[in-house]
C-alpha cells in the first residue's frame, strides 16, 4: 500500500480582494484513501462581511468572518449620538440663580440642578447636593460667584465635592476673578492674593473625565494665567466682542470715545478697541492726595 502524501499547505489569500471577485483553491480530501474529492474554497467580498464557502460533494460548510466594527452597529451608534446630544447638569450658587435660569432657556441640553445652601448655628455652611446619584456619568458644570470672602468657602466645598461624584467631566464657570487686581508685589510684604486663589482652585479634584476646566472672563492681567497649576485647565474668555457688538448697535456709534481707568487697562484692551478714540486716566499720588490725569493722545489734562 502506497503512503499518502500530506496535502500542500493552504496559501493565505491576500486581504486586498476586489469586489465581485472570487479566489478558488482546490484542496485534496483524505476522507477516503482511494477517492480524492477536491474542496473548493471561495472568498467572497461583500460590503458587510467576509464569507468563506467550502463546497464538497456533501453539504457546503459556511464560515462567516465578521469585521471588527459591523456596518449596522456603526450606523446605530451614529443615530444614537444624533438622537442623544451631550447634556450638561448645571449647578449654581444662590447669587447666580437668575443667570443660570436664563442660560438654561437658551439650550435644551442644559439641565438645572439644585443645591441646598444652609448654615449651622455657628455660621459654617450646611450643604446638600440634591440627587447626587443622578449625575453619575454626566457632564457637570458649576456657575460660581466669588463676590465676597464670606461666600467663597461654601462654594469651594461644593466645587471640591462635585468632581468626586463619578461625573464624566466637570467645568467651573467663574465669570469674575475677584482677586485679579492683587496680582503682584510692589513692596516686600505685599501678598498677591490672586496667586493664593489660583492655587486653591488648582487643587480641585480630578473627575472621571480628567482635569477640571475653569472658565473666567477678562482676567485682570494676562500673566495670571500662569498662576494656575497643571491639575486644571484654565480657559480665559473675553466680553470685549460682546461690548463691540453692543456699541455698534447704538444710534451714535460713530461718536464714541473709550476711557480706560489706568495704564494697565489700556495695555490690556487697547488693541481690541483701537478703532475708537481713547483717553487714559492716570492716578498720581502726591502725599495723601490722588490726582487723576487724563491722557488723550500726547496731551495730558489735569
UniProtKB/TrEMBL annotation:
Residues 1-36 are annotated as: Disordered. GO terms for biological process: 5-phosphoribose 1-diphosphate biosynthetic process; purine nucleotide biosynthetic process. InterPro entries: Pribosyltran_N, PRTase-like, Rib-P_diPkinase. Residues 12-30 have a biased composition (Polar residues). It catalyses: D-ribose 5-phosphate + ATP = 5-phospho-alpha-D-ribose 1-diphosphate + AMP + H(+). Residues 89-202 form the Ribose-phosphate pyrophosphokinase N-terminal domain. Keywords: Nucleotide biosynthesis. It comes from the Eukaryota. GO terms for molecular function: magnesium ion binding; ribose phosphate diphosphokinase activity. The keyword DNA damage does not apply. One of its GO terms (cellular component) is ribose phosphate diphosphokinase complex. Residues 1-11 have a biased composition (Pro residues). Belongs to the ribose-phosphate pyrophosphokinase family. This is Ribose-phosphate pyrophosphokinase 4-like. It comes from Olea europaea subsp. europaea. The lineage of its organism: Eukaryota, Viridiplantae, Streptophyta, Embryophyta, Tracheophyta.
